[in-house]
Amino acid sequence: MLAVFAIILVALVLFATEPVPIDITAIGVMVSLMVLGTAGPLDLTGISPQQGISGFASGATITVLAMFILSAGVQRTGVVQILGRKLSSLTGESETRQLGATIGAVGPISGFINNTAAVAILLPMVTDIAHEGRTSPSKLLLPLSYASMFGGTLTLIGTSTNILASEVAADLGVPNAPFSMFQFTALGILVSIAGTIYLFTLGQYLTPERIKAREDLTEEFEMGEYLTEVTVREDSPIVGDTIRDALVETDFDVDIVQLIRGDEVFLEPLGPKTIQPGDIFALRTDRDTLVEIMDVDGLDLVARTVDEAELEAAEEGRENLVEVVVAPGSFLVGETLATTNFRQRYDASVLAFRRGPELIRQRMDRTRLKVGDTLLIQATADSIERLADRRDFIVAQEVERPDFRQSRIPVAVGIVAAVVGVAALDILPIVVSALAGSLLMVLTGCLKPTEVYEDVQWDVIFLLAGVIPLGIAMEQTGGADFIAEGIVIAAGSLPLVAVLGLMYVVTAVLTNIISNNAAVVLMIPVAFEAALQIQPSAAYPFVLAVTFAASTAFMTPVGYQTNLFVYGPGGYRFTDYLRVGTPLQILLALVTTAGISVLVGV
Length: 602
Hints:
602 residues; alpha+beta; Alpha-Beta Plaits; 5-stranded antiparallel sheet; elongated
C-alpha cells in the first residue's frame, strides 16, 4: 500500500506540474507498478505484468479509440461546420444570441462525438461569430469549453471519462455497471440546464473581456510597433543576393512576412528569391532592430500602415492571416519554432503568439511552445489548409475546405446513430458496436484508411492504458479501503447525502489539478469502498457523483483539454478560470448531489 501511495504521490505532482506530457507520466506509473510488483522476491505493488498492461486491452481504452474514429468520420463530412454556420447566421451582433448559438451547438454535439473533438471543430466557428458580431472572443470561448463538459455528461460516449468510469465500476462489481448509453442522461440534462442558466446570468457577468472586440488581427495582437514595410534602394548592398542569405539567415530578430514587387505580392517560400531594387518587404521586427537593418542593408521606410488588409493582399478573397492553436499531442509541444523548422516545413511566417494573456512578438524562435499557445500566422491559403488538416493545430478561423465529403453526411450520421442505437438497446456491447462503426466509416468512404491513425488522440489512449493499472493496485493493496476509512471517519455522523456531496467535491478538486481520467481511476475505488462501509446500496450513487465530478473541471486551464484549447485564443489568465469556474463548480456540486438523491436515491 505504501509503495502504491508513493507512486500516486509522485504521479500527482507530475500530472499537476507537467514536466513531461501526462501520457508519459501515465506510462511511467504503469511501468513502476510492474517493476515493483515483479522485481525479485519483493512484491511491493501486487501488479503482475498481465495486470500492468491490461489497460491496453481494456474495453474502455478500445471504446475511446473507436470513438475518436467515429468522431473523425463525422468531422470529415463537414456536417458540424454546416450546422455551425447556420447557427452563426442567426446571431448578429447580440452577445446573448451568440452565447446561445455557442452553447446550443456544442452541448448536444458533445453528447455524441467526443467533447474534446467538438470544441476543436467549433472553436473556429465561435471565433468567427465573435469577430463578425464585434464581440470579444473571450466572452464566448470559456462558455464553449464549459458547455462541452455539460454535453459530455449526457451519454456514455460523451467523454472518455464516462467510458472509463463505466469499466472501472464494472470491474469492482458496482451495481448498474457497466453503464448503458443513456443511463444517466436525465442527470446530465439537469446539469446542462443548471450550467446553461449560470452561463447566461452570473457567468456572463463574470467572464472577462480579455481580448477587445476587433476586426483586425494585427490590432488584436498589438502588432502596430512590430510590422513595417521597407523598400530596397538602388545602391543597397543586398541587391542580387537571395532573401535567405541577406535577411533570413542573420543574427537580427527579423522575419520577412511578404514581398511586394510591382503589382505582385509574394508569400513564403521567399528564401530563394533574388532581391531587386525597388522591392518592398513587409517585416516583423522591433524599432531598434529596424534602424540597424536599414543602415546595414540599404533600406528605406515605406510610410504606410501594415494591417490585416495589407497582409492579405497576396490572394484576393482568401485568408492569409490566421490564428493557429497548438493542440494537445502536437509535435510542437516542448519544441521551438527554430528546432521544428516551422517556417520551412509549412511555408508560413509566425508574426506573434499569445500564451494566455501574454503576447510574445520578439525572439519567438527561442521560446518553447506549450499546449494552448496561439500563433498568429501569415501564409498562403494552401499552407493554411495544410495546417488545418493536421491534428497538431486548430486553426481558429473558418477555413474553406474543398475536401469535406458532404455526400457522405447521411452515411456518417447514420453510422453514429446505429452505434448509439445498438448499444442503447443492448444488442451489442458498446465496445463492439463502436469498433463496428469505425470499420464502417472506412468501408463507406467517410474516412480514408490512413486518416484512421491520424485522427486518434494517441496521448489519450496511452494515458488511459497507463492509469488503469493504478486503480487495480489501489484495490488489491487495500489503498482504496484505507482512504475510504479516512473519509468515513472524517465524515463522522454526516447524513448520507452530505457524504455523497463530499465525494463530488473531493473528485472535483482532484480533477482540476490532474487529468480527469486519472481522477476517476483513483476515486471510484475509494467511493465504492466508502459506500460499502457506510451503506452498500449507496455504491452506485457515490460512483455516479465521482463520474460527473471528474467530467466537469471548471476551475483551472489544466483540468480539462478543452480549457487549454481556449486559453490562448481567449487571452485568459489562470485566475479567470477560478473566478468563473468556482461558482459553477459549487452550483453543480449542489445540483448533481440533489439530482442523484432524487433520480437515483441514496
